[in-house]
């Protein structure tokens, strides 16, 4: 399955202590500069007593927009190394803040670069690397007999990686949403029609962006 870009799968937070300084890193997937800046403001309010809150983001499916700040650390020792890490991992639509509480021991230029890079990488690993792709939402409605056939049907391993089955609603019929990678939508519809002898109702509910874990 092809994906539009790589990002983090979920929001995550990690903490490191390096030479008595605490480095608390928070990372999120995000889709816009406004979302990233709102996240930065949130972290600054949460850690308003911190020595530094170093922010960075990369946005756009092709990493078109990039920004970072040293937030008072020596120039080039914190924000830019974080940005370099995100670029090296080809991550986009991601925002990250490394919060530092100074512990009294100066790390030097090289030490700061290593500390901020290590902190950012730890949080990214905790959040997990994800691919983002357009999935089609199919609204399914079927009778109970066909639902049992659906439950028993074994999709191929490749297809299972490309579908997300929602929770069913049990009324006169069984209704559920099925998300699938948009390129295999016709294949999924054909499987379901064949499985139910054409009795299933399939409604195209449009497309949405879905993040899914990547095995690196």
How would you summarize what this structure contains?
The chain is 31% helix and 37% strand. By secondary structure, the chain is α+β, with helices and mostly antiparallel strands.
Description:
This protein is of the alpha+beta class and 216 residues long. It has helices spanning 33-46, 79-88, 108-127, 144-152, 157-160, 185-195; strands at 5-8, 12-18, 21-29, 52-59, 65-68, 94-101, 129-142, 163-165, 169-170, 174-181, 201-213. Strands 1, 7, 8, 9, 10 and 11 form a six-stranded antiparallel beta sheet that branches. α2 crosses α3. The two termini are 14 Å apart.
Keywords summarizing the entry:
five-stranded antiparallel β-sheet, 11 strands, 216 residues, single chain, elongated, alpha+beta
Helical fraction equals 25-40%
So what's the overall shape? elongated
Total count of strands = 11
Mean pLDDT: 95
What is the chain-wise order of helices and strands? EEEHEEHEHEHHEEEHE
Write the layout of secondary structure elements.
Blueprint: E1 5-8, E2 12-18, E3 21-29, H1 33-46, E4 52-59, E5 65-68, H2 79-88, E6 94-101, H3 108-127, E7 129-142, H4 144-152, H5 157-160, E8 163-165, E9 169-170, E10 174-181, H6 185-195, E11 201-213
Antiparallel strand pairs: 1-7, 2-3, 3-6, 4-5, 4-6, 7-10, 7-11, 8-10, 9-10
């Amino acid at each position: 399955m092809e994906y539009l870009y790589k990002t983090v799968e979920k929001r995550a937070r990690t903490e490191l202590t390096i030479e008595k300084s605490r480095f608390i890193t928070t990372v999120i997937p995000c889709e816009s500069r406004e979302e990233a800046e709102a996240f930065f403001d949130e972290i600054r309010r949460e850690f308003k007593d911190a020595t530094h809150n170093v922010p960075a983001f990369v946005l756009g499916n092709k990493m078109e927009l990039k920004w970072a700040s040293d937030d008072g650390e020596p120039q080039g020792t914190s924000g830019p190394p974080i940005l370099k890490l995100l670029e090296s991992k080809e991550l986009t639509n991601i925002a990250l803040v490394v919060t530092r509480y100074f512990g009294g021991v100066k790390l030097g230029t090289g030490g700061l670069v290593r500390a901020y890079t290590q902190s950012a990488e730890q949080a990214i690993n905790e959040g997990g690397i994800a691919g983002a792709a357009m999935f089609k939402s199919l609204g399914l409605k079927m009778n109970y007999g066909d639902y049992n056939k659906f439950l028993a049907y074994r999709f191929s391993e490749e297809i299972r990686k490309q579908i997300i089955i929602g929770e069913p609603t049990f009324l006169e019929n069984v209704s559920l949403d099925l998300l699938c990678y948009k390129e295999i939508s016709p294949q999924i519809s054909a499987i379901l029609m064949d499985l139910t002898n054409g009795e299933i109702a399939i409604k195209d509910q449009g497309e949405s962006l879905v993040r899914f874990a990547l095995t690196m």
